Structures are given as structure tokens and as C-alpha cells.
């Protein structure tokens, strides 16, 4: 068995007393103090996440946009410079190989961010699918560190590390946008008054406002320590995978290996909007996805609100009114923000309407649930 890899911030996590776990081939912090405290910090102030396990693959060249249009289900060529789109890379049969974020950083330059466990596959597929296009594919995952600041205080924290026009770039950044900035950092091998060049993006996976900072791997410690110091006074805490999972579940965001996998197309997952069948030219999986769009689904992804106290978990059967299994839970947990259990599940279409009463078999006992819209939580708007 291959040993899990360590991110450039591994020593920082151990120094902070993190409980570590294997995830996507990497040894990652599960929690530092408590799942609940870290979850609440993100909802109320800010959390700092190490996402350096994610994959970063660059495409450059006059044909980079066309190569991505062919490789992915979305229209990368329609992304404006400085903006980003959520997309997927599918197999010929329309099944999802991974869900991605695609950033356009220049006219002929794109950054594709892949999930950790699929990063090698995505890089390989992009290289193969870009053949014949005027594009260079470069996997920079090992050389790149990624940290995220998520929560209501995120903008102030990140804006406090930049100066001049970069302050306006951060504060004026739209959702699903990015910009290169210079971060003022200290420590971690960088002298006082030092700086780090970063690509800062306003995307995220928690349902809160937040920023992701792509930096050179060798600068990760300095950036991490600087962000921790800058945010401590406003309630920022380091947060692990457990809080990230409960946050994304409340926000109704899919996780590859749970809501998305090789048995699922974007349409079952309620994400058919990312598939651009009308874009020029062919793309991998187009024929299968076109057929799937017009055929009745065998299952539909829904949100479930628990009416009891015992939470549904991934893999638990969903039962119909007659007690017969009609689907399965993909993700489930108690919601710290809402105060009741929530879950996402695939069920048969006739039982997917809002308000439908079902149950989930939790350790041999049927627990009542009701179908509700996704997401479960939306952050308050100012």
C-alpha cells in the first residue's frame, strides 16, 4: 500500500495538535480542537484550511480554450479572463470522472483544480484530450500549495495582507473570480517585510464567503502562519476535514465519491446545468449526455431533513412509505448550524418531490425524514 503523502504544512498541523487522517492519498488534518468549534468558527468568523492536496493543472497556448472545450462538459472558451466556472470531466459514457473548477487567468492560460484523489487521472486525461490542440498541459500540483480562508471575516483578513491596488482587487472580487496579488508575509523562512506572489480566488466549499490562495509550495508555511496571526484577533481558527465536510453538506455541495462517481452523470446529481451541449464542436461524453438529458432518470439527488435526532450516514438505505428501499444516503450528519440531522440521498423520481415523507434505516431502526430543497443553508446576505 502506498504511503499517504504529506502537504507542505504537515509540520504546522502536528505542531497545532491536529488529528490526522488519510484522504485522497494525503495525510490531512481531520480536526484541531473540536468539529463543532471549527464548524461554528467558519459560520461566525473564519476558518483556515489546508487544501494543498488538491490538484493544479495548467493549460497554456492558443488552443488551450478549445482543448478544454473538448475535454470538459462546460464551455471554457466562454470564461472571461479573471473569472472561473464549475465544471466536470466525464468519460465517454457520460459518467463523472471528477468535478473541477476552471480559472481563466489570461487569454491563453487556464488553471484546472481537481480533487486530490483524482488529480493524477485528471492530469492524464487532460494531456491525452489536448493532443492535436495548440496547448501545453502542465501538472503543477506538487509545486503548489493551496490554503483557504472561509467565513464572514475572510475578506478583511486577506485584504489586510495586501497593499495598493491589490486591496481593491480583493475587496472588489466577485464570486467565482480570481486575481494575482502580492501577499505581505513573515516567518516560515520568509524574512520580515517579505512577500509572496499568489493567485487569490473567491470560490469556496463551505457556503460562506471566502478566498483560496494558490502559492508556491515553499511559501506555504509563511502564508499559513501569517494568516493565522492576522485572523486570531477576529476569531479565525485552523479547521480540518471534518468541519469542511459538515459545512459543505449544509451548503448542499457534492463530494466526489459520495454524490458523484463513475456510476453517475451530471443529470442525476441535479447538475445538468454545467453541461453545454450547445457549444461548438464535439466533446468527450457528448453523445451519451445528450441521450441522458432526454431520458427519464432512474434516481434523483435530494435533500433530506431528519425529523428525529439520529443522523443518517453515507450508505444507509432510504425507505419508502411501504418500508422498501428506494435509494441510499450519499452524505449525512447532524447540522451544527440548523440543529437537526441533514443528508443528501439518491431516491427514485416518484419520491423526490419536496415534502415527501420517507425514512432512513439507521442501525436497524427506521428514522423519519422529509425531502427538502438543497441547499439546507444559505448564508445571510448583507
Automatic annotation (TrEMBL):
Keywords: Aminotransferase, Transferase
A GO term from the CC aspect: glycine cleavage complex
InterPro entries in alphabetical order: GcvT, GcvT/YgfZ/DmdA, GcvT/YgfZ_C, GcvT_bac, GcvT_C, GCVT_N, TrmE/GcvT-like
Catalysed reactions, as listed in the record: N(6)-[(R)-S(8)-aminomethyldihydrolipoyl]-L-lysyl-[protein] + (6S)-5,6,7,8-tetrahydrofolate = N(6)-[(R)-dihydrolipoyl]-L-lysyl-[protein] + (6R)-5,10-methylene-5,6,7,8-tetrahydrofolate + NH4(+)
Domain Aminomethyltransferase C-terminal residue range list: 299-377
EC number, UniProt record: 2.1.2.10
UniProt keyword annotation of Signal present: no
Keyword Protein transport attributed: no
Function: The glycine cleavage system catalyzes the degradation of glycine.
Protein name per UniProt: Aminomethyltransferase
Organism per entry: Antribacter soli
Gene: gcvT
